[in-house]
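User: Last request for today: this protein with adenosine-5'-diphosphate, please.
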Amino acid sequence: MKLILLGPPGAGKGTQAKMLAEYYQIPQISTGDILRTAVKDGTPMGVKAKGHMDAGSLVPDDVVVGIVRERLQQADCAKGFILDGFPRTVPQADALQNALADLGKNLDAVISLEVDLEALVERLTGRRTCRDCGKGFHVRFDPPAVAGKCDACGGELVQRDDDREETIRKRLDVYRAQTEPLAAYYGDAGILHSVDGMQDIQVVKANILETLTAK
Ligand code: ADP
Ligand code: ADP
Ligand code: ZN
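Assistant: Here's the final one, the structure of the complex with adenosine-5'-diphosphate:
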């Protein structure tokens, strides 16, 4: 399965990508996670990306395209992959087509998660992530058994620096201007499938799997 999860910040891409990766036994490729690791490790790429990420704007296309190109060549992507948070611009989508063509691969589907704008802000302000294993939670919608502690590994749950209200508004504007056109891009390609992302996490997962098996 070669899949893109498309949708605004907070739509549930990461949550669903993790579950689908386990279901299909293929890797989740999250450019956001890769960039955050680079920032934490202080690599040259991380240093370059940090200012863009803190401001809620996009990291330059050449940086993220380089990340994904390299990642797709790794052996664990042979059976498939789930792209989460990439592509985010039309030039990134074009670059992805070129990279896949070089590898002799084709996308199977693009799942677009549809979520109301007001719900996104609430999802992002309440989002918490495990510092140790990266598992995601929500203080109201997907709370851990013990407040502030990861169910999976007991690690500390932290809030992302860019999940503050001012930065969230900026990221949603960036999404509308730069990423939303990708729905038409993949609609024209005949591989776009919309899924109602306002439902319960497990219901969204079931609908995605239904969509992918029915196509
Ligand atoms: P994205 O990767 O698209 O930015 P996430 O998967 O990180 O989004 O989800 C954002 C927040 O919303 C997280 O705190 C997550 O637990 C929560 N969430 C995800 N899916 C749902 C859902 N269907 N209903 C309610 N909350 C959700
Ligand atoms: P979310 O889904 O909540 O918006 P991500 O973790 O996908 O968050 O991305 C966090 C930040 O990382 C983005 O605001 C942006 O600065 C950067 N980023 C991630 N993926 C890309 C991408 N494909 N192109 C450009 N910037 C990216
Ligand atoms: Zn954990």
